[in-house]
Design goal:
Length: 284
């Protein structure tokens, strides 16, 4: 390992003393970019270059971690037609050149199964004597949001939709939407400061499905809720259907009672008159 580091020192020194300019015979495409990737995925760090040199010297390509708070750490190197990989044990077996021959203008690398510890600043250095050029890239490895869970709470005349998840690297952004009907949220709906809950009055609700989407720098996840469009009846308000049934029952009971009373009264009067007629007959 120490031998490899000593071999790389000439390239580092050349990087200090050579001025890089757009008209140099050796030039790397310089667009600097910050790469955000999910833990466990793979990422390609590009380093395309061109040169107009006729030199028969081998092209040397090296990649190093060059974060400001740590000593420069080589991770892969191609020189003299030979490949030296696994220069950095924490990335052993996970780094390789995308091209079988990095001398042909493509010095890009792939990093597999990325981990949070891979979050660093990386430098690609290409040298073909007497020229060299370099490029810096930033890599951030993040935890992708876990599958969120949607739930709903109803209380009195209001409803609260909730969206929760177990893991994910901030910043996270919540988006609430309707996925059916007119696809418009209730006009008076409010979202809490975190964005994780949506609150609105039941009278403003429309039936159908709603969706909570959790977005991060490494992709979105979502969950869905289906809301029944029938409104609950408050405790102090009678159902119109219930009122109609009660009224009909009362009328039937009243009519039946009047009928029974009428029959009993008629029978009583009939019996009374019959007794009177019998008394008259006896007196005769």
């Amino acid at each position: 390992m120490m031998m490899m580091w000593h071999l790389l020192w000439p390239s580092v020194l050349l990087g200090v003393f050579f001025n890089i300019c757009p008209t140099c015979p050796l030039e790397i495409q310089k667009e600097r970019k910050h790469y955000y990737v999910a833990r466990g995925s793979s990422v390609q760090l590009p380093c395309a270059y061109s040169h107009t040199l006729d030199s028969k010297q081998y092209t040397e390509v090296s990649w190093s971690i060059v974060s400001a708070d740590r000593e420069e750490q080589p991770i892969i190197w191609f020189t003299g037609g030979r490949l030296y990989s696994d220069l950095y044990k924490p990335m052993e077996g996970r780094v390789q050149f995308t091209s079988a021959d990095p001398q042909n203008g493509d010095a890009s690398i792939n990093i597999k199964d990325v981990r949070p510890s891979d979050t660093e600043m990386y430098r690609c250095l290409v040298k073909k004597l007497p020229e060299l050029d370099k490029k810096i890239l930033d890599l951030t490895v993040m935890e992708a949001p876990s599958q969120p869970l949607c739930s709903v709470d109803e209380e009195d005349n209001s409803m609260t939709l909730k969206c929760s998840f177990l893991q994910g690297t901030p910043p996270l952004h919540y988006i609430w939407s309707k996925t059916s009907g007119n696809k418009v949220l209730p006009p008076q709906a409010t979202v809490d400061p975190t964005g994780a809950t949506l609150h609105f009055n039941i009278t403003e609700r429309e039936c159908g499905s709603s969706r909570c989407t959790v977005e991060s720098m490494v992709g979105p996840k979502h969950c869905d809720l289906h809301l029944d469009c029938s409104l609950p009846v408050a405790n102090n308000v009678s159902s119109p259907r219930l009122l109609t049934t009660t009224a009909v029952t009362a009328i039937v009971v009243t009519i039946t009672t009047l009928f029974i009373v009428t029959v009993v009264l008629a029978a009583f009067l009939y019996r009374k008159r019959k007794e009177q007629f019998q008394d008259i007959e006896i007196e005769k």
